[in-house]
Amino acid sequence: MKAFLVDRYTKGGALRLGDSPEPELRDNDVMVEIHAAGVNPLDNKIRDGEFKLILPYRLPLVLGNELAGVVVRVGAKVRQFKPGDEVYARPAQDRIGTFAEYVAIDEADLALKPKNLTMEEAASLPLVALTAWQVLVERANLKKGQKILIHAGSGGVGTIAIQLAKYLGATVATTTSTANVDLVRNLGADVVVDYKKDNFEKVVHGYDVVLNSLEKDTLEKSLAVLKPGGKLISISGPPDPDFARQNGSGWLLQQVMRLLSFSIRKESKRQGITYSFVFMTANGGQLGKITSLIEAGDIRPVMDRVFPFERTNEALNYVETGRAKGKVVVAVK
Q1: Is 171 a residue whose pLDDT tops 80?
Q2: For an engineered disulfide with 333, which of 35, 56, 88, 274 has Cβ 3.0 to 4.6 Å away?
Q3: CA–CA gap between residue 44 and residue 39 (Å, rounded)
Q4: CA 302 – CA 324 distance, rounded (Å)
């Protein structure tokens, strides 16, 4: 099959379009013909080698972390899906590879595609929607009447997190640039901080939760936004000891992660705030719940542009600029 591969980790390097063996189909697996694949900052970070300690892939590696497509075969023990089903997913982190014609996915990580979305729209959602769900619902336990600050509201995670937080009944503040103020307001943001004009930590106060996806400086300033008992949750790091243990990291790597997050954990504790790091995981059950919200009109995809499959490297480069509004997708078929 045709696929885009990482031959060696290189910052800003191009993927190689080549032939790769069709993935092995295990008993609990579903073979999906990929019609579209979402493109994420995570893809660039894996390509650059930033996660090689946490995610020790064997090279060459087929890149790509989310997809929509059609089931073509199922393993002997699969009961939930059949050939012809339209599906979407974020594969498990050790089985990525959606910049390709086919991928094999454990049925537990798969969900039926929302009926009201195109393949491209559906492919834009699994990774970012699961990230938003696992932060807001699972980790933050966000409740009606609470207040949350979502950084980078016009980005892939931000556009979905705003909508999910509003569905949950929260008051939502977000940061964005001048050009995207109307976009995030239309998604439901109650308070919009234009970072080109204002410092968010001087505008927003007394919040219950912050979702951070930006750099260390923004993470540290976010403490000023939270009230005692608040939760600072980051999807961009630094990783904490709990994540290291959950990820099955060895003792040495656990100590490295402990040191990386020591400063922010210490300062958070001093202020009576909980810091945690979330690295989203594949979950077909959660994705099924998200499907219901999409079909009900509570969440809609926000798409920037769709690239043809052969221009996957251009799509990665565009995502790396940080200027995308919502998601970038590659049309595979």
Answers
A1: yes
A2: 35
A3: 9
A4: 10
Residues 6+ apart with CB under 8 A from 239: 54, 257, 260, 261, 277, 279
Q: Which residue segments constitute the domains of the chain, with CATH numbers given?
A: 2-125+301-331 (3.90.180.10), 128-277 (3.40.50.720)
Place of tokens 């939930």: 80
Burial 50-88 (b: 16+ CB within 10 A, else e): ebeebbebeeebbbbbbbbbbbeebbeebeebeeebbbb
Residue keyed to tokens 């990525």: 96
Structure tokens at 12: 């800003």
For the entire predicted model, the pTM comes to: 0.95
Please tell me the distance from the alpha carbon of residue 118 to that of residue 68, in angstroms, as a whole number. Answer: 9
Residue reference for tokens 């073509």: 72
Q: Could you tell me the two tokens for 39?
A: 């493109």
Angle between helices 251-260 and 262-270 (to 10 degrees): 50
Measured between alpha carbons, how far is 86 from 286 in angstroms, rounded to an integer? 17
Among candidates 54, 69, 55, which has minimal Cα distance to 23?
69
pLDDT band for position 55 (cuts 50, 70, 90): confident
User: What's the CA gap between 35 and 309, in Å, rounded?
Assistant: 10
Q: What is the DSSP string of 79-144?
A: -S--TT-EEEE---GGG---SBSEEEEEGGGEEEPPTTS-HHHHHTSHHHHHHHHIIIIIIS---T
